[in-house]
Amino acid sequence: MDDSLQSLDQVRASAIDMAVRFGPKLFVAVLILAAGYVAGSWIGRLLDRLLAKLTLEPPVRSLLVRIARALVLVLFAIMALQNLGVELLPLIAGLGVAGAGVALAMQGILGNVAAGLTIIFTQPFHVGDYISIAKEEGEILDISIFSTTLGHSDRSKVVIPNRKIVGEILHNYGRIRQLAISVGVSYQTDVNAALGIIETLLNANPRVLRDPAPVFGVTQLAESSVTISVTPWVAVPDYGPAGAELNQAILETFRTQGIAMPFPQREVRMLS
């Protein structure tokens, strides 16, 4: 019984001694980490306001703000560890060995991160652009460190890992696209009258951009018709609706004005 009480007294004495020796240091370390969190948040908000005055993409601003906060937190964490008396050199060496193993296990993720940084800083496209790449196309909805999100006209989304984008051939349409409408009219048609009608319809459609100016004209003399190409520019969201509206308007107006739109036909002669 006396031995048990003596052991409890020793444990209690050791605990009190450790609390006296390390308690103040631990308390100060917690205060340093709390101060680092507050300082990181303040510096992040300040940097965000400064970057808002520059022409930077939102992902770039977000990345720079996060890096600044992380650096401030790391600096205060080092101060807290030094206050506790932790030897930093062995810790850094251990983290280096662990980091090498993690890097080998996460090659795909790290590849996406490297590609994401390349995209963010080189800016081959921006949010709102329409691109075609890796057998996919769509409007850029979001650019992150790991992936890029494309939006389709049917409201579906395609998420492409960034490593699949960097190094590929990229077709960036920007924020406008060019329609490709072909209209066939009879060889007996007054072509100038047909072109005048098309010009009127293009000017009347609010989705058609005035700059750059619409392009239209005769592009082919086919077997049974004269082909007129109509290629105006429209905003990316208006690409589908504008094409449907112009096709319908051309069809109805040509019918009203008596302009024939012949269907493909071929004359076959039988020789005896």
Task: Give the topology, please.
Elements: H1 2-52, H2 58-84, H3 88-105, H4 107-122, E1 130-133, E2 136-143, E3 147-151, E4 157-161, E5 171-174, E6 176-178, E7 181-185, H5 191-204, E8 215-221, E9 226-231, E10 233-235, H6 239-256
Antiparallel strand pairs: 1-2, 1-5, 2-3, 3-4, 6-10, 7-9, 8-9
Helix pairs in contact: 1-2, 5-6
Please describe what this structure looks like:
- There is one protein chain.
- With 272 residues, the chain is α+β, with helices and mostly antiparallel strands.
- It folds into 3 domains: 11-105, Helix Hairpins, CATH 1.10.287; 125-174, Roll (SH3 type barrels); 176-256, Alpha-Beta Plaits (2-Layer Sandwich), CATH 3.30.70.100.
- The chain contains 6 helices and 10 strands; from the N terminus they run H-H-H-H-E-E-E-E-E-E-E-H-E-E-E-H.
- The chain has helices at 2-52, 58-84, 88-105, 107-122, 191-204, 239-256, and strands at 130-133, 136-143, 147-151, 157-161, 171-174, 176-178, 181-185, 215-221, 226-231, 233-235.
- A 5-stranded antiparallel sheet has the order 4-3-2-1-5.
- Strand 1 (130-133) and strand 2 form a beta hairpin.
- The longest helix has 51 residues, at 2-52.
- The termini are far apart.
